[in-house]
Amino acid sequence: MEEPESLGDLIQDGLKKYYRMVMIDNIERKVEHPSTLSTEEFEVVFGPMEDEDFHILNKLALKEIGKIEELDDRSKYDLLMRWGGDWFRFLLKKNEEIEHYENCATYHNLIQELQKDYVII
């Protein structure tokens, strides 16, 4: 990370980190209202995703997905509304890049399961 040029830059960097962590915390706490940014919005607001963010979001998503075949229709809908299909595709791609194929299978199965009932892209 680059060194801030001024106090304003330092404050801006701190605010970005704070809001990024609030978004991740909302996902973790399963806040009812979908407030997750799309993957594109995340990058515009916070810049490229850091490894730490990816690992936290990946862990949260995998924990929430669990065994997709055991989720009822309402849980699947809530999962899609909270995350959005673009995040599942993004996490699938990132897991492919780091060769975590078990995670890839989970995301692939989730996307296929959600596509049965919902238009996710």
Q: What is the topology?
A:
Layout (H helix, E strand, L loop, with lengths): L6 H22 L10 H8 L4 H15 L7 H11 L1 H13 L3 H17 L4
Helix pairs in contact: 5-6
Our estimate of the beta-strand percent is under 5%
The number of helical elements comes to: 6
| Helix/strand structural class | mainly alpha
Rg on CA atoms, Å: 16 Å
- How many strands, what sense, and barrel or not for the largest sheet? none
Separation, N- and C-terminal Cα atoms: 33 Å
Mean pLDDT score: 83
Number of DSSP E strands: 0
Order of helices and strands: HHHHHH
Q: What is the share of helical residues?
A: over 70%
**Poorly predicted residue ranges:** none
- Using the alpha-carbon principal axes, give the shape: elongated
Number of domains: 1
Identify the notable features of this structure and list them briefly:
121 residues, mainly alpha, 71% helix, 0% strand, elongated
What this model shows, in words?
- The protein is mainly alpha-helical.
- The protein has one domain (7-117).
- It is built from six helices and no strands.
- It has helices at 7-28, 39-46, 51-65, 73-83, 85-97, 101-117.
- The longest helix has 22 residues, at 7-28.
- It is elongated.
- It starts with 6 loop residues before the first helix and ends with a helix.
- The model has no long low-confidence stretch (mean pLDDT 83).
